[in-house]
Amino acid sequence: MNHPEIERIIVGPLEIRPDRYLVLLGERTLPLSARELTLLTVLARRRGEVVARSELYELAWGASLARADRSVDVYVHKLRRKLEAAVPDVRFIHTHHTIGYRLDPQPTPLSGAGGARPPGELHPAAMH
């Protein structure tokens, strides 16, 4: 029996399986909306590249971006917040002002007390 190959996109500590609507951070599932998953998948397939806001909109919404529409920014903010809540010592999505966004996980210094964890280790709050 022939089984189609399952698409797996690995970017840093993320494993994305778009065909199963699944994002994993280590052994944990990261709950995302369909739109957030679509945006993350687009960015992951082009990891390290700046993807224009207009292109993200076209691929995720299937239409052209209206001039004052901030939908991409809002959803990227939501996605960034979820990723960084799960792994606070990694900055996943980088903003290129007036252009777009780039997915490129980079370690960031932890703020406040509590000590550092190894890069990519899940934050205890993300383990529920």
Structure description:
With 128 residues, the protein is α+β, with helices and mostly antiparallel strands. The chain has one domain (9-126): Winged helix-like DNA-binding domain superfamily/Winged helix DNA-binding domain (Arc Repressor Mutant, subunit A, Orthogonal Bundle). Helices cover 29% and strands 23% of the residues. It is built from 3 helices and 7 strands, in the order ββββαβααββ. The strands form 2 sheets. A 4-stranded antiparallel sheet has the order 1-2-3-4, covered by helices on one side. A 3-stranded antiparallel sheet has the order 5-7-6. Strand 1 and strand 2 (14-17) form a beta hairpin. Helix 1 crosses helix 2 (53-61) and helix 1 (34-45) packs across helix 3.
CATH architecture group name: Orthogonal Bundle
Radius of gyration: 15 Å
Q: Which blocks of ≥5 consecutive residues have pLDDT under 50? A: 111-120, 122-128
Average pLDDT metric: 85
The CATH homologous superfamily? Winged helix-like DNA-binding domain superfamily/Winged helix DNA-binding domain
Major sheet description: 4 strands, antiparallel
Structural class: alpha+beta
InterPro entries: OmpR/PhoB-type_DNA-bd, Sig_transdc_resp-reg_C-effctor, WalR-like, WH-like_DNA-bd_sf
Protein name: Response regulator transcription factor
Keywords: DNA-binding, Phosphoprotein, Transcription, Transcription regulation
DNA-binding region: 6-105
